[in-house]
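If your schedule permits, I should be very grateful for your opinion on a structural question. I would ask you to consider whether the tokens describe a fold that such a sequence might reasonably adopt. Thank you for your consideration; the sequence and its tokens are set out here.
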Amino acid sequence: MNDFYRTVLNNNIKKALTDADTSSEMKHPYLIGKLREVFIDGLLRPMLNDNYSVTSGKAFDYNGNLSNEIDLCIYSKNLLPPIFFSSKDNISILPIESLLNAIEVKSDFTKGNIADAFNKFSSIDTELVCTSGFHDEQDQVIPYYFIKPHYSLFFFNHRSKNYSPDNVLKIYSQIDKDWENNPLITNICIAGKGWLCNTARGWMHIKYDEKENVHDEIIGFLATVSNDLPRIETSRGTPRIGYYLTDPLNVDILMDGKFVNRPWGEGQFIFSNEHLIKITT
């Protein structure tokens, strides 16, 4: 553990939380947008290297399925690019292959806010499909296992004085039936209270060090988000934008001196998050 590194990060966190408190006191009509901005600039962006970027927006897949708007999307700049990007508003529409971590930022810890985030993440997890990023020497698709986007939840405030990690998980368990062994949301942080993370050893918790005023809960949250990115990115292989833009079966192939359209017959590629199916008729 590097005390200097921790001190610098903890000072950044305290400044970001002060900015968030100021915005809340002003009752700004666009409070959530301001909190999101504070989170990106004060907490998240300093933890990302040049391989990754963060934006608000939606994810979509090669079939045109579109997610709900996500507060923060961490995506790989080495994979498929956004098709729409507004630097002024920091809004993008991202291919699902590039989305590595989706984060919802909430002002207060409530069951309703957890449910809202869970529903958004569930639609991404079940409705959007990744194309294959691996092909053999004959350019045929190789089915493979990849890591889905990770889902994280950050709260700036917990109004109840009776905070406990057990109560947080009790509330979450009412929303996610797989909360214990295979939770959808694996990274939950409540600023000034604590951080819960689901690992191979189960749920773990680190609390805010009130005595020393060290935000170990936010440090742990940010470290986990950052640590996971390279592993998720590598699992995606080299996805091809052509699956979004063209029909790989509707091509002319030179056969016996003549170009033949659709030499494999009528059909289409169908991807799923479990395997690839090539259908021909």
About this structure: The longest helix spans residues 3-25. The helical segments are 3-25, 31-44, 111-127, 165-173, 216-235, 242-245. The chain has a mean pLDDT of 87. The radius of gyration is 22 Å.
